[in-house]
Write a structure and sequence with these properties.
The protein is an alpha/beta fold and 374 residues long. It folds into two domains: 3-244, Spore Coat Polysaccharide Biosynthesis Protein SpsA, Chain A, CATH 3.90.550; 248-370, no CATH class. The protein is 55% helix and 13% strand. It has helices at residues 22-31, 51-62, 80-90, 110-118, 140-157, 176-180, 187-199, 224-238, 246-277, 282-305, 311-342, 347-370, and strands at residues 7-15, 38-47, 69-74, 95-98, 124-131, 169-172, 204-211. A seven-stranded mixed beta sheet has the order 3-2-1-4-6-5-7, sandwiched between helices. The model has no long low-confidence stretch (mean pLDDT 84).
Amino acid sequence: MSRTEERLLSVIIPCFNEAETIVQVVERVTATELPSGWSKEIIVVDDGSKEETHVALRKLSSGSVENTVQVVYLPLNLGKGGAVKEGLRHATGEYCIIQDADLEIDPGQYPSLLAPIIEGRVDTVFGYRTLAEEDAHRNRMLFYGGRLVSSFYNLAFKSSFKDVPCCYKVFPRERIPALLAAPSDDFVFDAIEMTYILQHAGTVTQVPISYHPRTVTEGKKIRARHGLYCLLAIVFFRLGIHSAPMGKEVPKALRFLTTGSISVLVNIAVLYILTDISHLWYLLSSVVAFVTSGVVNFLLHKYWTFNYKHQKSTAIQVPLHLLVASINLVLNTGIVFILVHYLGVWYILAQAIAALIIAIESFLVLSRFIFKRA
């Protein structure tokens, strides 16, 4: 078979601060023998890495693999999903596969992944990791956390995937437009959105692959919170919300809920101390509690939830937040007064209800106006 008749596999390698492993990974991919009639192109996408990784990538240009590797540099860190999408935009192969830039999964397993496609049984192949006994002690929690995510995904969509978060997914280039339209740019895209899109676009089978996990000290970037983001993303998809920006908005929503919970606890604690211990009039205590929790709420939202650390924006945000807080103070006092005096609700419960209502209203105002990014 001539070179022009060969089937091309696009190997996309998202890379973020992998100076220690990226060259070795690319060399292994380059050295991997594909089945007869197949060739490969390698696309490395640097996702805003530090200079050490840039130095390592420049070694590729001067080494023996310079003619087979295309390196794409992103000026900012978009997240793994964003880097994969950029690689897909540059892919020209009939099929694509995602290769992590670490040494956890050996690219020498490509032939076994391509076999079901070559045989004509399916058009998409998912790898699922098997943990060797000697590696059982290394990041066992994350490995089985991935199994938990897979089980939840299977329960939600009546599927039987063994390892949804596994990066090894081989798919035809016809799936690229749908993947590029997916909303997330981080790990949620790689684990959940890609799985969902490929599952519903063609025929899928699974192939076992060997796996040698890294530890956090060795550079492992996945944390338990990423599993939580994936679980929430599955809920969104199950509810039919496919256009939600899950990648960045899910963690923001979680931070908002955490900040709101802290503010509510501060509010109720101050209210209890002033009313039950200091014997201050409950309505005045409610005002003091609201103001105190409002200060805590603003600081947490600015420097954590919405991550606005530029001082220039503070001059605008403070008066706007004070205006919103003043309106919310009137609402809070009115709601508590009505619930206690007219409906006979216990003052603590009344304050909790008022805080919940105002939290929802505050999220809409803060996210759409005060802390909205251009």
